[in-house]
Amino acid sequence: MARTKTVKPKADSKADKAVAAKASSKGRVKGTATKSGTSPKTSSPTKNKSKSGAKSHAKPSGGATKRKSVTGGRRARGGGGGPARRATRGGWWKRPLKAVLRLGILAGIWITGGLMVLLAYEATQLPDISNIASMARPGGVRLISADGREFASHGAQHGRPIDAGDLPKDLIDALLATEDRRFNSHFGVDPISIARAMVVNLRAGSIRQGGSTLTQQLAKNLFLSPDRSLERKLQELLLAFWLEASFSKQQILTVYLNRVYFGAGAYGVDAAARKYFGKPAEKLGLYESALLAGLLKAPTRYNPVANPKLSAKRTRQVLLNMVDAELLSQSRADAASAMPPAIRGTATVSRGHRYFADWVLDRAADYTGPLNDDRDVRTTMDRRLQGLAEAAVKTEFAALKGSARTEAAVVVMGHDGAVLAMVGGRNHAASQFNRATQALRQPGSAFKPFVYLAALASGYTPDSVIDDAPLEISGWKPRNFDGRFRGPVTLREALAASLNVATVRLSETVGRRGTIRLARQLGMTAALRDRPSLALGAGEVTVLELTGAYAALANGGTPVEPFGITEVRTAQSGTAYRHRRASLPPVADAVAVAALDDMLKEVIRSGTGKRARIELSAAGKTGTSQDHRDAWFVGYAGDLVVGVWVGRDDARPMKEVTGGGLPAQIWARFMRGAFEKKVAGGG
What we know:
Blueprint: H1 14-30, H2 45-52, H3 61-76, H4 82-90, H5 94-124, E1 141-144, E2 150-154, E3 157-158, H6 169-179, H7 191-204, H8 214-223, H9 230-246, H10 249-259, E4 266-267, H11 269-277, H12 286-295, H13 308-324, H14 330-338, H15 354-368, E5 375-379, H16 383-398, E6 406-414, E7 419-423, H17 448-457, E8 465-468, E9 487-490, H18 491-496, H19 500-510, H20 512-521, H21 543-554, E10 565-570, E11 574-578, H22 590-606, E12 618-624, E13 630-637, E14 640-648, H23 662-674, H24 676-680
Parallel strand pairs: 1-5, 3-4
Antiparallel strand pairs: 1-2, 5-10, 6-7, 6-14, 8-9, 10-11, 12-13, 13-14
Helix pairs in contact: 1-3, 6-12, 6-13, 8-9, 8-10, 12-13, 16-23, 17-19, 17-20, 17-22
């Protein structure tokens, strides 16, 4: 009997091989077709067992039937294991996809839950916004000149609170057309603006636009820090939602316009209107409204005083925005652009007054202490005299060669000690060091009048004689500026010619302690050492102190305390400080002071101060410290006392600059301008 051969399907996988093995075993149990096509025959149990190695005779027939049914079912669908392979290959991606979907759903649930927890936490960290209209804000300071005009400000300047309904419609339209066109329809966040900004920024490859609404800007500026963190952005969004839910659109707009920053220290639209145009916000015109709305994007960059061309360009863009938003006709926009108004507010004031302003601000803080309220500080500054002092320094220095590092200081004072003008340096932007109030310099011969006043008070007269001859004190030998000695001279002659040796001899005769006591009574607080060189101004003083001492000489001998503030008022508390002049006794009798006055006039008539001559009767004294390090002229005419100092900050010698030169010329130029009308009228 020939051995039959079983046909086995090829298996490409373990599963296919297993199916094929079962099918082969079944064929040997039931019988298989031979290659020659003979009929299958039933093999005996013994032979079947020996060939297949299976104990099929020990299993019930039903088991064999079941296996056949399963195998036959697979084979019936095509046979040979091919369909099984196609089914397995075609659905391999379903199981990983289901796993990814499960993970995605789970991650979404966790992320959503985490965001809810984060938002809940951030909500607990938000500030109280229940009463935003009356929230505390830092106090600002406005400096008012003697004629009632604001000339400087410090800190945040807040205008009057104004309801948005009382402001010009053009201002509201300019704001909304430029900053938030859907303000009246969004819920605090504008998805359309955010999407548009994202597209623009993606195209540009950088941040060019923002999608913040006015409500978001208010939330950020009023409650939050300027840092760009995710936490701050979440808080901004939450606050925007809460603001929209808690307040009406007009209330939000009102608070925004009363708190937003417009540059130049101005917070709020009323402060900005006064700062740039010198008028209340209710009277703003179309162009003015567009200019202020344009400032909000970058207040410093679009400042109309600092960058007029850039500001005008920005204002025209705002007008175009209004036209595009159908809030303005093209003809009105063209007319407004053709005739822009002038900038007239306090923002146009020059920076020359800054030295005076710095000095006054420091003193105001000392007088009132810290205040959270806005303050109006009424000062003694005369704006006309301030301008003349600045111009005198600038003009005289323009004619001086090699003066790049030479500085100047000027103090203009009334007979009562009121500081009317102050120049603390040639350029406040380059150096804020106030040489009029902070620099301690040797006055040189400008100190000599106090030696002579002490002598006059002790019984000397202008015609008393003192010897101008060689002198030695403990090895020190004073010498005159020109190196010559004049022998016996009167006190009048010695002061007019500024003789050093005669003055030292007089000081030693009268006593140095008397001179020091007199200087203290006149307000000089710097160290004045009890040495022979005291008579020649070897001590150090400020320009302010020395000018104040000369004010006492001008008013008959009554000491004054220099002051620049007459009153400090706050919006809520009223008057916080008012200047009261101290009643001090004269430092010398009227006869002695009058005698010194006549001697100081001789200094200008025939002495070292000839270049200080003006058309009016004037008195004063020159001063030059050792090696030309300091040059002074301090004097008075009419109702003004003026001190001028010239020198270098590093105290190095100047090139032959003396008190009778540049300082006297600055003094004379200022005085001529100050009394121009009086001289012209023959007064």
